[in-house]
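Listing 4. Sequential folding, example run.
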Amino acid sequence: MPGESTPGESTPGLVVCPVTGVIIDQPRPGQRFVSATMLPKDDDLMISLTSQHRGYAKGSKEDVYTQAAYNARNKDSNQRNNLRRSINRIYQTPTLFDVADITADQRAALDYWQGTPYAVPLNGLRG
């Protein structure tokens, strides 16, 4: 389909959304994901995004395009954030069972925060 590429593909001067694989025309500086202004112009993309995520609560103030754009941005970071939150919870509350094993993919996700105030201490974790 025109305007689509494989997620994560990079070409000089071309911005591709890592979640949807859609090429972003005229991106703003630093833009990595589809935006709410792009979605009304692409019905197929909007349908695919709304079918992938559950609906928002009734009475939500955002329109459907803004909600779909939020979901696309969150999909990229939710797994990484949930893993970080789980590990921090393990450090704060002792557990009954050994939870020191993490996979290589999880370790790579945690490396995202290395050198920031949000870095996760990995002492004691095997992986």
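-- end of first protein; second protein begins --
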Amino acid sequence: MKATRPANAVSIMALMLASGLLAGCADSPWSEKNTRLDTDPVLRIAGTMEKQGNTAMAAQFYARAAELDKDNPRPLIELAHIAQSGGANDSAIEYYRKAIGLDGTNYAVREDMARLLVAQGRAAEARDQYRIIIDATGGDAKTFSALGVALDMQGLHGEAQEQYRRALAKDPSSGNTISNLAHSLTLSNKPREAIALLAPLVSAPGASPLMKQNLAQAKLYDGDDAGARETLLASGMAQDQATKTIAAWNQERSGGGKTAPGASAGEMHELPVQVIEPRPENAAPVPPPEKLVPAVSAPKAQEAKPTQAGAKAERIVPAPKQPPAAKISESVGASLDADLGLFKTPEQADARIAAARKSAKNPAISFTKQATEGGARVLATGFGTLDDVQDFCDALEAANMTCGLTLGGE
């Protein structure tokens, strides 16, 4: 939907939550007595709220959808994304795990969880997920490289290098994979092989600071302390930080040249990119997984259905099971209204109502004015479905008028 939320609509949502409209009344979407709910419109409203930036309300609706349809992984996946965007990584992992328990063939979700596990230093768990993906799909270059990172983090450098080479067989030009392989060679006391890989990579345009740091570490392990420092400084690292970094590498080197298993081993790798947008700072926390649905046992590896070898996993979102036929008020226990904005004078509010009625041309829609400290807020009510609200707001936006979604009482 194209509609955008007025800036102060979030505070209206917060006020409704505080007043108990959505938290405790018998017909709220969180009430156990409400058996009329249809999951599809709840999910659609959640998605619309999230697009408008109201992730706190979106999370509440996704949580309710997960309670309504315990066999549908989609709301759990969305909750995982919201939790991860807010830095609640442990909760995000549990939501991913529950979603995978419902659909073990959703390899894109397995990848999402595995990347997060790597970032959290949980290498063994990430390794298991990547192996399931590779066994089922044949694997691609990014998956092989990511598995290599997880293995390096466990100190299994020989196995890691095998995975990096499998990745390069599929994508020989991947600078990230070359850098990962070189770093693994350094960790297994083969710094000259690492330098041979990294030197042309670092001299080419677009080399990342991490590639330069990997080259610096390889030079240090090869006994070229001055060259290591020079390369670190060329990567943009400050003098004092370069000194601390070299000291840490020397300490690792004195331990036999192998980095101890754990998160530190992954810090010098190029991890696969996962785009999760950060949530607003004032957003409410996502409900913790243990408060939402019963624990789901982890799926067995053989439950994953194989797909065509080499096929790339894509984000799979199950299609809604039912069409959104029910009225919004019957689906979520509260009306879904259109917020036309706040106006300083009643005359301005009346003018907007007249213009909106003319543009929307829907006689079933009624308009109300709510007095506030800043003037009068105009709401449009009487919509039967989410599509009705979207059509109404699209018509208003085409006429250069603001329109956003908000929840109201029946």
